[in-house]
User: Fold these one by one.
Assistant:
Number 1:
Amino acid sequence: MTYEAVVLGASAGGMQLVKNLVTSLPNDFGLPLIIVQHVGDNSDNVWPNLLNECSQVLVKEADEKEPIQRGTVYLAPPNYHLLIEPDHSFTLTIDERVNYARPAIDVLFETAAEAYREKLIGIVCTGGNFDGAKGLLRIKELGGMTIAQDPETAEASAMPKAAIQTAHPDYVLSLDGIKKLLLEIHTAKTTSHELEN
Amino acid sequence: MNESASDIEIDLLLESIFQKYGYDFRNYSKAHVRRRLDQRLRLSQLGSFNAMRDQIIHDPEYAETLLRDLSINVTEMFRDPLFYRSVRELVVPMLKTWSYIKVWHAGCSSGEEVYSMAILLKEEGLYDRCQIYATDFNQYALKQAKEGIYRSESMKKYALNYQASGAQASFSNYYHAQYDSAIMDASLKKNIVWAHHNLVTDSDFAETQLIVCRNVMIYFNRHLQNQVHKLFYNSLSNGGILCLGNKESLQFSDFADSYEELDKKQRIYKKRYAN
């Protein structure tokens, strides 16, 4: 299977995890990584900029109508929901909070599932609520790969636990396991790409 | 790319709404429309978008509910306080050069941001020479906006936004609270005209000096955004001001060169003088 995108949700404890993961990606990472991380409503561009400075891949806030590119990490802007269109571009909305959150992981995951179907990888990581569980289930229903962080290794276990209960994901992995799996998929993708050429 | 069966069903549904009721959601964000339709589909216990389409064609009341689903946007007073601070600092001095000011709040929804602007204009001594046109195509939201009644609970958050916007007075001066409701002061409503207007299907509005349309066009696709930008351009006087939402940009629109940026971050633009 050739995957085309990765979506990831994190809440409490997410900053460390996102930093750890994003800084480990090689500069030619063959997929886009799209992240909803629960943050305060009025935080500005400081966090994406900081991440970008210490990463090999490009890290940026997702812009309205921006076409999604591989090798790029996109963060949902605070106080907007992040949606993915069937043509693989972003939409931002100010709709009601979902699971008390805006951006909500479920909103990203459900729209990404429709847009990428079986070519999507969804990952639910550390967090103290249950956002992302329904979205991960939707990814699974449409044939994508589903992963939850091992609750034992997560800083806050409630969110990956809820995801496991609701979606019965394909993999339950530590952060290191998630990194390893993503790199394997990246390598497989670049190798098959080279063969095609 | 091949469209999935449900994508095609949604396209047909939107086509039917347009043909039967004249409301055009065909150029809305597909991901957004699908989410709202999905929610209604689950609540209505209908099996598919095709079944929903049938119901819409034959049941105007059901159609009404769906139109409401598709068109209501949530907002708050002084949303993005720094935007209002920038309006005070950059836009107000320009507005003061006009003897009579027409303000168009396009897509005003339930009115929170219209009252915010009315408060700001009042505090800056401009309200009495302003006419504010607040428009939306959702009659239900418009009715709410006109009444100006909000939940007392929300007022606490709005008061914090108000203070962060650089205002000097007390937010409680502008409403009267009773039990769990708060009604906006009548003096704010005096110069506001609430009107039904559909950005997608209606034409130019009036010659205005300030257009505020925040977080409305994010729901539209690029084609429709350009169409609405044309409408705004034609409705603004030379040197008039256009205010968009914090994540909206003119940069990729057909009208990027028609405006100068007054505040890049707060998305405030000034229409260039036409040659």
Number 2:
Amino acid sequence: MRKETGRVLTAISLIVLFLLLWWAERHLDPYLRRILNLIAINIIWAVTFTLIYGYTGQFSLGHAGFIAIGAYVTALLTLAPAQKEQSFFLSPCIWPLSTIQWPFLPSLIVAALLAGVLGLLIGIPSLQLRGDYMALVTLGFAEVIRVINMNLQSITNGSLGLKGIPAYTSLFWSWGCAIFTISIVWMLGHSSYGRAFKAIREDEIAAETTGVSIFYHKLMAFTIAALLTGLGGGLFANLISTIDPNLFSFLLSYQVVTIVVLGGVGSITGNVLASIIYVSLFELLRPIDQPMTFGSITIPGCPGMRMVMFSIVFLLVILFYRRGLMGSNEFSWRWLLSKLQPIFRRERQEG
Amino acid sequence: MMILKTDGLSKHFGGLIAVSDFNVKIEKGELVGLIGPNGSGKTTIFNVITGLYKPTAGRIYFDGKEITRLRPDKITALGIARTFQNIRLFSELSVLDNVRVGYHLRLRSSPFAAALGLPTYRREEGEITQNSLRLLEVVGLADVAQEQAGSLPYGQQRKLEIARALATRPKLLLLDEPAAGMNPEEIRELMAFIHRIMDEFDLTVFLIEHQMRLIMGICPRIFVLDHGVTIAEGMPEEIQSNPRVIEAYLGVEEEE
């Protein structure tokens, strides 16, 4: 198979995807559209986690922090001044935030850039550490961001949260950004920089003596990941339209880790598949939260029962299927065509 | 022309003196050996020269420039490459990618150019791949370029490690026990290989060896280390007849 064939196939499938999205945007009910949007946003988060952990080997639990920054920035920039005045009743929103209302695109860009700057600032101290220590420090930073959001009453409206955020996030926005994120991370991951990231993951000492500047590359991966995670956060806020600090607790970081481990660490294809499966399961398992009756035993309804199922799935994956759905393999047209070839051949013989 | 010079180099780990007052001068194009019994501080010297350890005292000059407290990647960029005693490859990456990592430090394209796949980056990537394949050809690994590095047999892993080091375009190559675990036939082959790459890449080689007999045959000049102290320096014949060397080294070997 030639390189051009792959490119053409990729272009065609992108067009098909956008036609499908266009159809979905017009004909699907809001509930299903919301699920599709959430899938795309989770893909963004999972792919950025892959850049930090799957490629560069740095275990970060700070995703919730970057998501929160992205979400709050777009929320505050896109919220109507009247809505702000209404929401901020404990202490009024500070000027100039109280008066501005931006369109979605510049808000998203500012959100992503701010998350990137924050990633840089958090990365500088935390990337000096390795393994579990790095995970703990990033987890701590994400918690710090949550607590700050909780207490900056006149900027974030504290624990009251923000309401009435315009629902700008459509399927085009969310999937467009997901594809943008995938292509950036994919291209970077398969470039010379990506090889440097993976060299660091494999053996820091060997990477260093082969001329790879460890800290610079770790920081680069971390900052780019933070930036794109913030982008996902912005889409998230303008999708769910109500946010409060506790939405961005460490549980959100764990959700991203769960998706990545399910899909296979280091595989973008795995990230996409696992995001689809995770978000769909999350909805399909809704009945579990309801009261259930098995013969004479009645289990009272309990919100969060679904999470127990996820824990069980997660445990099973770790115990029996450690490499996740995809391991570190990626989808390729070559692979698909080689799978399809025998089928076509059989048809031709039968015909 | 002097390529490497150390001035009273010492490394202590707490109370343990791993290396004390090590002075070496290596001319361009030389092949110099460093021998000594286990634990005599040979690898520590390499680790200090390549910047992995900070020296306790002393200075290191490379190619007329002081490199004493530089970061390992900066030192590599200046032109010192090394291999490791217990092979350190990027095992999950392909053989080709292992070598391509070696070219990364000379990459001029920015991460943006790489992420967007701009033509300037693609041209560089093409050059890197071609050069890497040529290098694999030189070391005889071209036909396993797509294999995973960790799956190669031991001897090929050693060669790949040397190829990766060569990719950084070194002036000085530090080889840490390149012949470990090889049989006499393989060792002869390795020595021919080292001479060949020295000519081809205009290299100076500083090499650690543990077996006395082996190093005698190939290195015109040898340093002998015992408990971190340089006990002898000179041509193989001088070393062989040096009573301190015999006491510290050959004497032990005879008992075995």
